Amino acid sequence: MQSDIDKEQGQRNLLDSAVDYSTASVSLSERGAAPVAEPVPPPFGGAVQAGLDNAAHIGAGVIAAVLTALPVLALLLVAWLIYRRVRRGAYSGGQSMGAS
Predict the structure, then answer these.
(1) pLDDT for position 98
(2) Residue 32 per-residue DSSP state
(3) pLDDT tens-digit readout, 23-44
(4) d(CA 92, CA 100)
């Protein structure tokens, strides 16, 4: 039994070491083509500007979401007000009928 466990452990170690060396990098380029320059990260001012742009996009998204939900919220408000009025009428109508 121990020999089977050792054999399986050996195969596992072999596969683990084979996986370690299985990464390959490939770089293709066309003959005569100019090499592509690595992108340079923007300076601090550019990062601040990018952050402000992202904040503006988030704000526009929030406004769009609120404006999209506004008609549904208005309908829910009207339905709630009608429900409240009907419910109050049922209570007051029931009391006045019972008192007479």
Answers:
(1) 47
(2) T
(3) 667 777 788 878 777 777 667 7
(4) 13
Work out the angle at residue 57's Cα, subtended by the Cα atoms of residues 53 and 59, and round it to the nearest 5 degrees: 115
pTM score, two decimals? Answer: 0.39
| pLDDT tens figures, 52-73 | 999 999 999 999 999 999 999 9
Task: Please state the domain extents for the chain.
Answer: 46-93
Long-range contacts of 29-34 (CB under 8 A, 24+ apart): none
The DSSP output letter for 21 is T
Mapped onto helix, strand or coil, the DSSP state of residue 90 is helix
| The token pair that represents 71 in the structure block | 């008609």
Please state, in angstroms and rounded to a whole number, the distance separating the CA atoms of residues 17 and 12. 9
CA-to-CA dists, residue 84 to 70, 88, 90, angstroms:
21, 6, 10
The 10 Å Cβ neighbour count of residue 81 is: 10
